[in-house]
Amino acid sequence: MKYGFIGCGNMGGAIARALSRSTTDIAVADRSGKAKALAAECGIVYSDNASIAAGCDRIFLGVKPHMMKDMLAAIQPALARRKPLLITMAAGLEIRQIEEFVGVRLPVIRIMPNTPTAIGKGVIQYCCNDLVEAEVLGDWLADMAPCGLVDALEERLIDAASALSGSGPAYMYVFLEALADGAVACGVPRAKAYEYAAMTMIGSAELYLQTRQHPGALKDAVCSPGGSTIAGLRAMEAKGFRSAAMEGVIATYQRNKELGK
Ligand SMILES: NC(=O)c1ccc[n+]([C@@H]2O[C@H](COP(=O)([O-])OP(=O)(O)OC[C@H]3O[C@@H](n4cnc5c(N)ncnc54)[C@H](OP(=O)(O)O)[C@@H]3O)[C@@H](O)[C@H]2O)c1
C-alpha cells in the first residue's frame, strides 16, 4: 500500500483522517484495535505493524516518542531491507535518532502536526533528510494538502515551532474556556458563551490572515480611548497575560528539548 500508520491515536488518527481525503490507499495499526473504527469510517484498511513494515511505501510513525525505539526495533529487518519513507511526528526526536533506531540510512521526513489537522485546519512543519527525493516529496505534499498548512522549516526550529502550533490547541482551548467562563460569570448562558468565544477566536485569526495587519493595529481598532475594551486588557495585563503566553511557549520548548535527549 502507499501509506501506513503505526500508531493511530490522537495525532496519527487526525492525519490519517485528513490524508484519506486525498487517497484511501492507507493501512493503519495500533495495539488495542481502537483504530478499527477510524479505518471503517474513512474507508481505509486496519492492519498490523509487521504488515505495514513489509508492504507500505510511506510509513507514518505515530507512537509516543519514548515508545519509538522499541517499536522500530521489532520491525527493523523489514525497514532495513526495504528502506521505505518514514514520516515521524514524535515531539523532540530528531531525524538522525530515527535513523539510529533503524540502524541504516533511509528516507525520513520529520513533521510537527497539530490536532486541527483532522478537519483540514492543521499546521504542519516539516523537514527531511537528503535521501527524500524531490519527486517523492512533491507527491507527498500534494497528498497532504487536505491536512491544512504544510510548511518547510529547518529541523533546528521544529521544537520551537512545535511549542507554538503543535501544543497550541491546548493553550487555545484553555483560553476559549476561560473567556467563556468570564462571560458566564457575567450572565451569558454556557453554550452561547462557548459559541461566541470560539467564533471570536476563528474570526480574529481569519481577519489577521486575510489583512496581514499588525496584531497590535487590529487590537487598537477594538480599543476606544477611555473605553471598556482597554479597561479589560489592562486587567488582563495586570495578571500577566502576555507574559503567561510567552512563558508557556518557552516552557513547552524546553520540555521538548528534554524529551528529545
Ligand atoms: N497529540 C498532539 O497534539 C501531538 C502534536 C504533535 C505531535 N504529536 C506526536 O504524535 C505522536 C503520537 O501522539 P498522540 O498524542 O497521538 O498519542 P496517542 O493518542 O497516545 O497515540 C499513540 C498511538 O500509538 C499506538 N501505539 C503505541 N505503541 C504501539 C506499538 N508498539 N505498535 C503500534 N501502535 C502503538 C497507540 O495504540 P493504542 O491506543 O492501541 O495503545 C496509539 O494509537 C507522539 O510522538 C507525539 O509526540 C502529538
Describe this structure in words.
By secondary structure, the protein is an alpha/beta fold. The protein has two domains: 3-155, 3-Layer(aba) Sandwich (Rossmann fold); 168-259, ProC C-terminal domain-like (ProC C-terminal domain-like fold), CATH 1.10.3730. Helix content is 55%, strand content 13%. The chain has 13 helices and eight strands. The chain has helices at 10-19, 35-42, 49-55, 68-74, 76-82, 95-102, 134-144, 158-166, 168-185, 190-211, 215-220, 228-238, 241-259, and strands spanning 3-6, 26-29, 45-46, 58-61, 85-88, 108-112, 122-128, 148-152. It has an eight-stranded mixed sheet with strand order 3-2-1-4-5-6-7-8, with helices on both faces. The longest helix is centred in the last third of the chain and has 22 residues, at 190-211. It is elongated, with a radius of gyration of 21 Å. It starts with a strand and ends with a helix. 30% of the residues are buried. The model has no long low-confidence stretch (mean pLDDT 96). The structure holds NADP nicotinamide-adenine-dinucleotide phosphate. The site of NADP nicotinamide-adenine-dinucleotide phosphate (NAP) has 28 residues, from helix 1.
